[in-house]
Amino acid sequence: xxxxxxxxxxxxxxxxxxxxxxxITQHKDKEQQLIIVVSAMGKTTNLxxxxxxxxxxxxxxxxxxxEQVKEFHQNILEELFEDRTxxxxxxxxxxxxxxxxILEEAxxxxxxxxxxxxxxxxxxxxxxxxxxxxxKQQIDSLWLDARNYIHTDNTFREGNVDWxxxxxxxxxxxPSLVEKHVLVTQGFIGSTSENFTTTLGREGSDYTAAIFAAxxxxxLVTIWKDVPGVLNADPKWFDATELIPELSYLDAIELTxxxxxxxxxxxxxxxxxxGIALAVRSFVDLKNTGTIIKSTNSTLPVSSFIFKxxxxxxxxxxxDFSFIVEDNFSHIFDVFAKHRLKINMMHNxxxxxxxxxxxxxxxxxxxxxxxxxxxxxEFKRDLELVTIRYHNQQTIERVLxxxxxxxxxxxxxxxxxxxxxxx
Length: 423
Ligand code: ASP
Ligand code: MG
Description:
423 residues, alpha/beta, Carbamate kinase, VC0802-like, 2 domains, 8-stranded mixed sheet, 6-stranded antiparallel sheet, 16 strands, 24% strand, globular, binds magnesium ion
């Protein structure tokens, strides 16, 4: 059994959906069982995010965003299904009606809850369209609602998976279904025990693919991407990037943990636990096999660079210049967790504790307010965090051109630097 994951970029238009059908017919052999996990099409999630924000603030833009989302999908539908009476038109419009119902009333619930109820529609629509198209192409497919399988707690926008319940549910029905059909389901979404929809965090569809794979002991997960595989740096920041043909689970976990966005960071661990390989390859260049992540002792053939922009350095100092001790740490970490800010890098000295986090205005303002009750808090914005895996002096110098180092941490394998542009 194999799992294929298709992200938003791979199904951003009708041509992308046709290509998915093409990949399935090309790569699936008769015996092989296949589950397809799909994301929302193109930039739909961003649009639905804007829609949710606008609705929450009761902004006039709300309906504009909604129209954009509907029109975008309508155009794709019309290109793929010339018969306007095809049931898919109705299925899609029924899903959008769920958003209509929410918008009819003023927001009563928390932002995070509303976000999940609205944004999840992107994946539901996308999977419906793709599944209907596969059937039209004579592929014997079946649509499944991932919310019946992926069970989470009530942490909206960042649902924590209840692995036991999820595995039990998947094992009780998927094996017999996948024997007969190509199963098509949604990435990114799950549901609580009260049947409210949750999401697993942005870009979480990779993680969904890994959850299904781990529960079913699949032989391989393939993430089809718009890049040739895992590269040693994001081409957005670096000209001369190199493809890494083979990667150990550990290197893959480290790279994604530090912010390599090619795979969602939660994806690797469940696969490593079950010894399932993960392929990352291009949906454009089908001859290229891309990167394979598996159990191997080989280290990266080249240094890898991960850039995180828009960092803020927060320095926390006891008001009386006393030492920072264990009690302070435990309190400080609690405050970060409570405000849902993830620490990307940290460093402590006798009288201060400094961390770098992604700049997220809303959460940082409330965090600083709370910390200031007990500490002096300073912060510095517009920084970049660079992580070099398998670094050397030359690679460090390469990223420091016109930059100065604000904070640096280094061990044998990894060098992390918080840097600022020299004006
Ligand atoms: N559609 C979601 C997002 O854009 C999930 C995903 O693409 O993996 O974040
Ligand atoms: Mg995406």
